[in-house]
């Protein structure tokens, strides 16, 4: 009995190992980004995110013990008149060369008999150590996690410290007020988040509404050339988005629609329609015809049948479409870049900008990326069922 | 796309149906059909769309030569001409031949694929190099022969093979494995999650993984592992030997969930009796998979493969965000964007777009056929 069970568990072991391994590979890059976004910016470039719980580097202590401890003692106070662990003294040494000069003077004054001074690399480590133990640099008490990166990214803070620190010291930049209105700062992710919402919501509702109309007509209404028209519309899915950008933006320039929400709503609606019509027609067309026949026999009009029967029955398809369209719009960079640009920056646009202009500003970049990923992740995990169903239905585009 | 029969009773009204279709029809005409046709026409025009593409063909004036024109009225290239060309750093091969265009006035020297035009003007002979030109199809010549485009085609081919193979292979593997464990939905959600993330977000995530520094501390996970194992850190995104692979890995990470979901649904529809019967007959799991499951879900695999091929041919965002097409990572769709918005060569960009569509159409048609056949069986 027991050996059988052990055998069963063992035979399933490779499956678990491979599957869990793959899941870890899939997760780790995202976890790395998330952990980094929560670390103080001083730490991010000094050590990998995986060392977040490891003790911070204590380099320099061995240098102190090798050269200075015999004279100055373990507490730095053995020589009269000098306290190497005094923050006021150490605070004066900003660079290792200054410490070198100080130690040379000590030797010349005959206070210590150092035969050999630490070399440049050792001196750097030594100074870092002294600054740490004397409390000038408060690395040890620096929290391992902080929300500062998120606050800075949301408010569009670009200074050297952090939004909270600067505001507490009363040194805020010109375009910041240190109150809640900062969240609408055009450089920040907060404003971009609102813009993304303003783009996404109408862009989800409009194409789905029109596609429901068309899907109903293509399945249950009769008009000449119905199937041909349907095939043509669905075939439009192969037109790559990039192919239509130039002519549309030229027309927009004449109409003054560049940089307006209306312009991007219309464009996304146009591009969402072929797939949406295809999905809606397949769904509404597969509803049982008896329902529609009897509704007509009862004397209902097209319109009543549409909004009393077809629409409520196709809620699952509407939900899948809405999720798809939402994720597509929310994650889009190209269309936002061309039609909104910097006038109404959305999340993807802001991050794209940060990638190119900030270079190594990982603390802001990681936080910004997570702000942009938060909503789609919530939508995805909450409505995964509809998402998968919609994908299965539309797996074969065309 | 089988035609659903409309019940007799519902065939009422001539205008009403059009009112339902009209909004969609109008918007699609304005935003897809009109710009699409416009772009197609642009592909036969020059950079700013004002003249025919043939206007972009140029003849470059190279140098003047000093020669008796009568010497040129033969097929062989005169030795004197050869030396004079040599003085201007142009070496003619022994294959070079003279063609008389207009006796005493214009000659062409054809040397393999190169063409030189000699024109007599004011007693001097001007030598022009004739760039090959396809006339109104000039933009297509660029799109099919320019070195950067050849790189793009080569990379796209690499993308198609590795990314389609990677996503479908891993997707199938995960679908099969996940089917046997209790945490199936969790595992699938993890693999599927990148589908919800933007390309920009994924770009940031992976740029961090690939982060490279020349110093002691590597904050990029991959280089930290490499240095821990005693290797030299690698600049993953700019090293030509690995950068395409590094980008394709990001694509596989994002799209495996898509393949897995569809293949998993298909695997679940395989009748359990068949699988059980095979197991009772003593078939190993390995054989059950290859001889029973795979043949049954083959149509789905084919559909997933073609869908992925179409997606990969159009791949743009990953390359745009992570390398911008530099360091030899160019792909067709990014070139199309670059010609349009960086070089402002709308004609070339349009030609590339048309070629991209032509490349995808065969897969599209095949996909639709396959789908129809499947529907017919049901």
Descriptive overview:
The complex is a heterodimer of chains A (398) and B (378). With 398 residues, chain A is mainly α. Chain A folds into three domains: 2-37; 61-133; 189-394, MetI-like (MetI-like fold, Orthogonal Bundle). Helix content of chain A is 67%, strand content 0%. The longest helix of chain A is centred in the first third of the chain and has 36 residues, at 2-37. The two termini of chain A are 55 Å apart. Chain B is of the alpha+beta class and 378 residues long. Chain B has two domains: 58-132, no CATH class; 139-377, Orthogonal Bundle (MetI-like fold). In chain B, 57% of the residues lie in helices and 9% in strands. A five-stranded antiparallel beta sheet of chain B has the order 1-5-4-3-2, covered by helices on one side. In chain B, a hairpin with a 2-residue loop joins strand 3 (106-111) and strand 4. In chain B, helix 4 packs antiparallel against helix 10, helix 5 (184-192) packs antiparallel against helix 8 (243-268) and helix 9 (272-280) crosses helix 10. The longest helix of chain B has 32 residues, at 147-178. Chain B is extended, with a radius of gyration of 30 Å. The model of chain B has no long low-confidence stretch (mean pLDDT 83). Chains A and B meet through helix 1, helix 10, helix 11, helix 12 and helix 13 of A and helix 1, helix 4, helix 5, helix 6 and helix 8 of B.
């Amino acid at each position: 009995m027991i050996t059988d069970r052990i055998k069963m568990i063992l035979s399933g072991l490779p499956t678990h190992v491979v599957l869990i391994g793959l899941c870890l590979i899939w997760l780790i890059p995202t976890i790395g980004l998330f952990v980094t976004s929560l670390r103080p910016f001083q730490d991010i470039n000094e050590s990998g995110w995986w060392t977040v719980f490891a003790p911070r580097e204590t380099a320099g202590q061995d240098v102190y013990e090798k050269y200075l401890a015999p004279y100055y003692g373990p507490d730095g106070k053995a020589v009269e008149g000098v306290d190497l662990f005094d923050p006021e003294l150490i605070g004066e040494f900003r660079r290792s060369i200054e410490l070198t000069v100080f130690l040379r003077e000590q030797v010349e004054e005959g206070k210590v008999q150092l035969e050999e001074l630490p070399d440049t690399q050792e001196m750097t480590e030594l100074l870092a150590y002294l600054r740490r133990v004397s409390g000038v640099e408060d690395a040890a008490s620096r929290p391992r996690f902080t929300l500062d990166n998120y606050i800075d990214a949301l408010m569009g803070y670009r200074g050297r410290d952090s939004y909270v620190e600067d505001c507490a010291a009363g040194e805020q930049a010109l375009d910041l007020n240190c109150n809640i209105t900062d969240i609408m700062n055009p450089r920040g992710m907060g404003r971009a988040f609102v813009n993304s919402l303003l783009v996404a919501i109408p862009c989800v509702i409009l194409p789905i509404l029109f596609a429901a109309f068309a899907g109903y007509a293509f399945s249950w209404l009769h008009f000449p050339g119905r199937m041909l028209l349907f095939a043509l519309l669905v075939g439009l899915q192969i037109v790559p988005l990039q192919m239509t950008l130039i002519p549309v933006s030229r027309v927009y320039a004449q109409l003054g629609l560049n940089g307006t929400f209306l312009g991007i709503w219309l464009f996304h609606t146009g591009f969402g329609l072929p797939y949406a019509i295809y999905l809606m027609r397949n769904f509404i067309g597969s509803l049982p015809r008896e329902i529609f026949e009897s509704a007509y026999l009862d004397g209902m009009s097209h319109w009543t049948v549409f909004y009393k029967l077809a629409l409520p029955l196709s809620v699952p398809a509407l939900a899948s479409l809405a999720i798809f369209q939402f994720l597509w719009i929310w994650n889009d960079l190209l269309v936002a870049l061309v039609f909104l640009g910097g006038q109404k920056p959305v999340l993807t646009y802001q991050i794209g900008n940060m990638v190119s202009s900030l270079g190594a500003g990982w603390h802001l970049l990681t936080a910004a990326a997570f702000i942009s990923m938060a909503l789609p992740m919530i939508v995805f995990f909450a409505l995964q069922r509809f998402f998968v169903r919609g994908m299965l239905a539309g797996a074969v585009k065309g | 796309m089988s035609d659903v029969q409309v019940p007799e009773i519902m065939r009422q009204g001539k205008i009403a149906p059009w009112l339902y279709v009209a909004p969609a029809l109008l918007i699609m005409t304005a935003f897809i059909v009109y710009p699409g046709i416009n772009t197609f026409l642009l592909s036969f025009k020059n950079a700013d769309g004002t003249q025919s593409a043939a206007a972009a063909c140029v003849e470059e004036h190279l140098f003047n030569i000093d020669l008796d024109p009568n010497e040129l009225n033969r097929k062989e290239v005169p030795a004197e001409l050869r030396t004079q060309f040599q003085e201007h750093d142009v070496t003619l091969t022994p294959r070079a031949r003279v063609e008389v265009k207009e006796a005493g006035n214009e000659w062409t020297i054809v040397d393999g694929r190169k063409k030189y035009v000699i024109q007599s003007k004011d007693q001097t002979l001007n030598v022009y190099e004739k760039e090959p030109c396809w006339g109104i199809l000039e933009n297509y010549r660029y799109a099919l022969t320019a070195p950067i485009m050849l790189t793009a085609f080569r990379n796209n081919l690499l993308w198609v093979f590795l990314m389609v193979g990677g996503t479908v292979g891993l997707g199938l593997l995960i679908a099969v494995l996940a089917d046997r464990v209790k945490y199936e939905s969790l595992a699938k959600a993890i693999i599927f999650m990148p589908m919800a993330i933007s390309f920009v977000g994924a770009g940031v995530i992976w740029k961090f993984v690939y982060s490279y520094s020349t110093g002691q501390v590597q904050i990029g996970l991959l280089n930290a592992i490499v240095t821990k194992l005693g290797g030299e850190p690698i600049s993953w995104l700019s090293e030509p030997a690995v950068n395409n692979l590094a980008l394709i890995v990001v694509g596989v990470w994002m799209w495996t969930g898509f393949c897995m979901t569809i293949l998993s649904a298909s695997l679940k529809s395989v009748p359990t009796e068949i699988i059980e019967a095979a197991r009772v007959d003593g078939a190993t799991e390995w054989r059950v998979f290859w001889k029973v499951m795979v043949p049954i879900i083959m149509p789905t695999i084919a559909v997933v493969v073609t869908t992925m091929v179409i997606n990969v041919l159009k791949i743009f965002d990953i390359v745009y965000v992570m390398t911008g097409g530099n360091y030899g990572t160019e792909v067709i769709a990014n070139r199309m964007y670059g010609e349009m918005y960086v070089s402002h060569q709308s004609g070339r960009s349009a030609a590339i777009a048309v070629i991209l569509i032509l490349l995808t159409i065969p897969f599209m048609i095949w996909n639709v056929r396959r789908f129809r056949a499947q529907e017919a069986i049901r």
